[in-house]
Amino acid sequence: MMEAPPREDLPALLERLAPGSWELYRKTAETREADVARDEVSELWRREEGWAARWWSGGVRFASGSDRGRLAEAVGRESELPAHEEPMPRLPSPGAVRPASDAPVEPPPNVFERLALLVSEKSRGEATLASLALRRGRAIEDIRNAAGLSVRMESPRLDGVARAVGRRGSRGCESRAVFRWDSEPDLESLAARLADGATFPLATRGPTFPRGSLLLDPSVAAAVLASIAPLFTTQPLPPWVKRSELASRAVTIVDDASADAPFDGEGTSTRRIVVVEEGAFARRLHDLRSAARMGEHPTGHGVRPSYRIAPRPGPRRLFFETTRGVGPLELLGRVARGVFARAVTAPVSADLARDRYEIEFTGVAVLAGRATEPVAGARVSGRVSELLARIAAVGTDRQFFPMPYPVGAPTVLVEKVSFE
Amino acid sequence: MDSSAWDEQAVARWLDPLVLERGDIAEVFVERRRRTVVEWNDGEPAEPRVSLEAGTSARLRRGGRERLAFVSGADEAALREAIRGLQASAGHSPLPARSPRPRPEADSGSSAERWIRRLPGILGRHVPRHRLTWTLDEVTRRILPSGAPASLSERRLLSLEGTFVAASRRGDETRSLSFHAPEADATADELKEALALAAVPRERPVPFGNGTADVLFSGGTAAVLFHEILSHALEADAGESPLSRLSAARLAVSDLEVRDEPTRLDLFGGYERDDEGTRPRAVKLLDSGRLAGRLTDRARGGPRGSTGHGRRAGPADAPLPRGSNTVVSAGGATTEEMTRRLANGLWIDGIESGTVELSSGQFRLRYPGGRRVRRGRFADEIGPGILAGEILSTLSAVEPVIGREVRPCRSLAWCSRRGQVVAVGGAAPDVIVRRLSLKDR
Prior knowledge:
With 420 residues, chain A is α+β, with helices and mostly antiparallel strands. Chain A is 18% helix and 39% strand. In chain A, strands 7, 14, 15, 16, 17, 18 and 21 form a seven-stranded mixed β-sheet that branches. A six-stranded antiparallel β-sheet of chain A has the order 3-2-1-4-5-6. A six-stranded mixed β-sheet of chain A has the order 10-9-8-13-20-19, with helices on one face. In chain A, helix 3 packs across helix 4. Chain A starts with 8 loop residues before the first helix and ends with a strand. Chain B is of the alpha+beta class. Chain B is 17% helix and 39% strand. Chain B has seven helices and 24 strands. In chain B, strand 2 (44-62) and strand 3 form a beta hairpin. At the A-B interface, strand 2, strand 3, helix 2, strand 5 and strand 6 of A face strand 1, strand 2, strand 3, helix 2 and helix 3 of B.
């Protein structure tokens, strides 16, 4: 039988179990979602609450619950399970509290018809918008710990997923775009991605040349960056990684989530971390535990994808630095013969231990700096180390995509690639 | 884990006024979930995690418009808030806000501790060097539909996933393991058998070579193939697919029969009631090679009603028509006969994951390895790869001889569609498919 304990009991409970060695996390979120398809409309309103506790007592322990009472019960059950000894990292010290707003969450904007029109226009009538799920909401996170930390963060969101279907004769193809808007809805860009992704694969052939340059659309470059991101938290690094020459000098990669939240999921202050600087591996991303294991300082990258999951090191807002980039049209002009990869047709695959990657994509053939004909499907594969070393330039047109954390990439030019 | 603290008549009083027309659906859905996770590193438990969750949603569907309001919690306060959210959304005057006194919840106990005591012995005997994640999910769901009696369902699902080091004839080899089964008396024995089989010494694998090949799906893996190419395409809300306009068409050999069987509680995707409270029934997807039924929920059931395939990932989601257990009927051939019949090709007994793109009908299956078959005999160990094909051409390329022994596929477990992940399972005999595209990984 379970009775919900009063709020103040949880810190007391944790202090009793693990004196000076605990943290308590609470997340409340309210979202409104509109999921529109041709013949169906769904309106969903969700108010979610989640609690989590982590403490060090005979090892690291983690429990979560959808309310205080359930968390207290989960902590009790968890304490009976065996754990592996692990020293406690130093917990972040007291931080500021920011009040959260209590304004009601507005429904997401109704943009289905506008987007459908744009998809149709951009595909010359060959693609139709099949569905659009749009979600607007707000999450409030509270973190307390035994060192006296007590912080509150609020993060708004407007994101979604859209699906378009292209048809040419009896052949069909579907494209799906996941997006997140930090300001006004960017329908033009979304419609172009959907239209190209749904119609390019209907072309009659793949690339007609075996080698050339590969120009990555920002969405494709972001998917590639997300696929190699585990490198930035891996310990130890795979043997193929040369710290001084991870990538070409054109590549600088940064993680900076200051725009999203002042603290990470463990209460460490958010900061800008240059992960790769002009091609050299500069610094790892750490949470409290990984930093303690390596004798380094935490970098503010303890992420909680959900309150149900214990914090772990990971990127929070990872992007290519573009201050020294060149315009996307200039990048196109540099391609003597190659393919502009407009959309991936399968998840980018990267086996970082084996130094292997594979990108399957659809796009447009480029000759003498001009787009010529659609490429139905193509594949490039090889060594991750070679892919990174052959990045010749990055553009200035950076966009962010949810992967599911924000990943920012501009158009990226890779040279000397073999197409399959 | 269930709470019977609500007054069902009161819930009916709140829901019934929302139902205005024939075909309207109004219901309340409550879930309680207890998840225990333990990481196992070479017999040592690490990072145990326990999660206890409860959620309540109220749903109203009229015509093509669905409304859902979700709140955390499973007590009367959560119920009232969910219904208030739904009423406000539907333009009805909401229930008065009230804070009822919390009531204690009954607890049916967990078998997690027992498993944690047994696992070191089981793992130590069969796969002593390992990095595995063990999960026990204990879920209770209660549905209160307007105009129908309440229903209750309970499932306990066990998973063991990760890698282990196996002896290979040319040195140690890291292999992946994926075992998912409903908790039952026989689960521990079945797990031991699966571990023993997975750890059998093998030669070092070689690439098969890219191209097309005939493939023998063994170890129940044909269930994954048909889950992708039949079950998804026959979900009632599936968009345009190659099967859309082929009602009752003959697509495969008459020996092939494929069903979706939610009532098979021994498989990972089974249930006694779906997430709309409907008692499920088995649906023939392919009947003697002909395209047969569709998987429906209450909203898309038509005159015959729901087949009991309205499923949700959790209380925060609206139900969708989804497959459950894909089961292929037995044929008459022995394993040896099937291998001889394959003659030259690839034999696989494991599939890691699968995807299908319904508009084009293209599907992919990732396999961790297999055996080359030459002249009806096993030859080289083969490394990981991807099988690909198109729905109609693959169905027409199924060999007319089917294996006689139906085996559960314990690697088939979680299926994601539109962001909703539900438990699925399957069982199948050996099946041969000719001319699939194959690519080494």
